[in-house]
Amino acid sequence: MWQYLLAMLLVPLLLLGWLLIQQIGRNFARSHPELGAYREEGGGCGKSCGCKGGGCQRKGNTE
Q1: HSE on the CB side for 1, CA within 13 Å?
Q2: Of 51 and 7, which is predicted with more confidence?
Q3: How far, in Å, are 28, 39, 43, 54 from residue 58 at the CA level?
Q4: CA-to-CA distance for 13 and 17, rounded, in angstroms?
Q5: Is the pTM of this model over 0.90?
């Protein structure tokens, strides 16, 4: 029973911790614009697309 309660407490705390880290990153980027724009995880081009000319084309996408 105590393991269930621990998990119920730990999962939301980990989520809140991750949200706090993201906010800290946004605030840091806002106060240091000389380092470039803040890039959200999963935003822009990543491993599954080919970037050409600032655009992102998904592999296997014929559109």
Answers
A1: 0
A2: 7
A3: 31, 19, 13, 13
A4: 6
A5: no
